[in-house]
Amino acid sequence: MSDQFSDTEIADLKESFDTFDRNNDGSINRRELHSLLHIVGHKVNAKGLENLLAEYDVDLSGSIDFNEFVQLAQQLIKNKISN
Description:
Layout: H1 7-20, E1 27-28, H2 30-39, H3 46-56, E2 64-65, H4 66-82
Antiparallel strand pairs: 1-2
């Protein structure tokens, strides 16, 4: 999954993921992702959201599964630290 996160951090990410996976289908759709990003303070417009999906939806399902979410979280944290 990711060498960047501890087991506790992965558990926390899973809890967050499950909270925003409102229909419990194992993925976060475009609307759910937008809500999650807004809650964590990452303002993104429609184009930015499309860009994130294009970059992190590696299986091209149209949504973000947990493994893809971990990669996205890693990048968001990295960007927050460097800003």
